[in-house]
Design brief:
By secondary structure, this protein is an alpha+beta fold. It contains 18 helices and 18 strands. Helix 14 packs antiparallel against helix 16. The longest helix is centred in the C-terminal third of the chain and has 18 residues. It comes from Prunus dulcis.
């Protein structure tokens, strides 16, 4: 009876939560105490209201896009759980008190959806849940969602010099969002995506239950590996299959300006990059260097080769002789050193730099993405160079596919961009002054470039990558997520897998508690099929 009475009182006062920060913290703490027998009232350690002295610093600690720092969308509470039972309690209490939930692992969501919401909400920040347990003997690891890629890579390297993992390049990216969106990096042509190498997971569902692969079932396990895990629950940890890496790998970065023939090299690269030996990954980074009259477009050919210089140079002479790669352009290193190399660290820095959660660079930005199925003609490349003259800190990054990516079915996991895609494009614009005028100017520029690229990229749908979140593609309504309306953006990210994701959503979270501007909506009964 005491439990029922307390919960009844919580329901009665819940309407006042948005207006009283201290009261809301007390109410939420009381609710968590009731919901979890393992939870003791440790609000000073785990629950922060806007009255808390640490509230602002915790809120901003992993907001990786300063563009959102001045947002009026602030959480009513920030919960930094120390154990899984506290997350279970936070989910149940958020439901009971009518609050939305945002889950943050690394804070790299491009549109800030892990820490922004238009209705009263709670942030569950997983920063304290970031253990990595590597089993080198069976070549697996369990990693909690609050860990970063850097922490994962470092932990693997400390256990073995011959094991690695195929995930992203930025070491401060959180595991939770990265894995659940797919996750690609320098090893994808050899080993596929991070999500392709997930073999188990632990998740808290909308009812507060902790489920693993066996108890959640194969449909839900399929959905969280590339379908955006925040739509289905809170993923606590992932079991991953590690991959073999050679003792010596080779990196190179060759810079070319337009005057040095960069345009023809980019054009040629499009025809061959997806057909290189799977040990060879060469991406392209296009940016402005210099300023004013000295500003010019520079193209960097940035590569990882799984082997030594003695194999790489003859392979390049055969596969891409136009680049003119020489042994002096190359650096031999270990796999963990290559992680540091691609992250922008200096050659003499120790691997411990990967443990820092502070990014090397932090600025306001907007990004968009595309997939390319036919080489972009030289006249269109010229159009890109011309548009680069209209802004300063802009980037186009082209990541080649092929290899292992061609061998995995587009239906194997929700991430559908497989065979037939030559490469992915990421467009980025950055700026320093966080004002409305500056923001609008730079966002206008990237939208203009995106419109210009329309004839040269994938169509029906025009593909996009969920981890490069882009609300320009469309967003859900605040209180009524429509499957048909969401299909406008959902099919761009997931193609034919979007309907199956919505079918899974309708089974595991039919009332759409776990939702945001681009979460998977439940599939209406009219569209449902008997089996997923």
């Amino acid at each position: 009876m005491e439990l029922v009475a307390l919960l009844a009182s919580l329901f009665l006062v819940s309407v006042s939560l948005p207006t009283s920060s201290s009261t809301s913290g007390q109410i939420f703490s009381q609710c968590m105490t009731v919901q979890s027998s393992n939870y003791t009232r440790t609000s000073d350690q785990t629950i922060y209201t806007s009255n808390s002295s640490l509230y602002s610093s915790i809120l901003q600690s992993s907001q990786q896009n300063p563009r959102w720092l001045n947002s009026t969308s602030k959480p009513l509470l920030i919960v930094t759980p120390l154990k899984e039972s506290e997350i279970q309690a936070a989910v149940l209490c958020s439901r009971k008190l009518g609050l939305q939930v945002r889950v943050r692992s690394g804070g790299h969501d491009y549109e800030g959806l892990s820490y922004l919401c238009k209705t009263p909400f709670v942030i569950i920040d997983l920063i304290n849940l970031r253990s990595v347990k590597v089993n080198a003997a069976d070549q697996t690891a369990w990693v909690q969602s609050g860990a970063t890629l850097g922490e994962l890579y470092y932990s693997i390297a400390m256990k073995s010099g011959s094991l690695g993992f195929p995930a992203g390049l930025c070491p401060t990216v959180g595991i939770g969002g990265h894995f659940s969106g797919g996750g690609f990096g320098t090893l994808m042509r050899k080993h596929g995506l991070a999500a392709d190498n997930v073999i188990d997971a632990r998740l808290i569902d909308v009812n507060g239950r902790i489920l693993d692969r066996r108890t959640m079932g194969e449909d839900l396990f399929w959905a969280i590996r590339g379908g955006g895990g925040s739509s289905f629950g809170i993923i606590l940890s992932w079991k991953i299959k590690l991959v073999q890496v050679p003792k010596i790998v080779t990196g190179f970065t060759v810079h070319k300006t337009l005057a040095q023939g960069a345009s023809k090299l980019v054009h040629r690269w499009q025809y061959i990059a997806d057909k290189f030996h799977e040990d060879l990954f060469i991406r392209i980074i296009i940016e402005n260097v210099g300023s004013g009259r000295e500003k010019k477009v520079q193209v960097s050919f940035n590569s990882l080769f799984l082997g030594g210089i003695d194999r790489l140079v003859p392979l390049m002479d055969q596969s891409f002789p136009e680049l003119g790669l020489q042994a002096k352009d190359c650096i031999e290193m270990s796999w963990i050193q290559s992680v540091q190399y691609f992250a922008g660290f200096q050659e003499d820095q120790s691997p411990e730099v990967l443990l820092s959660r502070d990014p090397l660079w932090k600025s306001n930005f907007k990004a968009k993405s595309d997939y390319v199925k036919q080489p972009i003609p030289e006249v269109a490349l010229k159009g890109i160079w011309e548009r680069f003259q209209q802004d300063q800190t802009v980037f186009v990054i082209m990541d080649p596919y092929g290899g292992r990516m061609n061998e995995i079915s587009e239906f194997e996991i929700p991430f559908p961009h497989r065979k037939g895609n030559l490469f992915n494009i990421q467009y980025i614009v950055k700026w320093d002054v966080n004002s409305v005028e500056e923001t609008n100017k730079h966002i206008h520029w990237i939208r203009m470039l995106y419109r210009f690229m329309s004839p040269y990229v994938s169509k029906s749908p025009r593909g996009a990558y969920i981890n490069y979140k882009d609300l320009d593609l469309g967003s859900n309504k605040q209180d009524n997520t429509s499957y048909l309306e969401a299909s406008a953006w959902g099919t761009k990210y997931f193609k034919g897998n979007f309907k199956r994701l919505a079918q899974v959503k309708s089974k595991v979270d039919p009332d759409d508690f776990f939702r945001n501007e681009q979460s998977i909506p439940p599939l209406p009964a009219l569209f449902r099929i008997t089996e997923v």
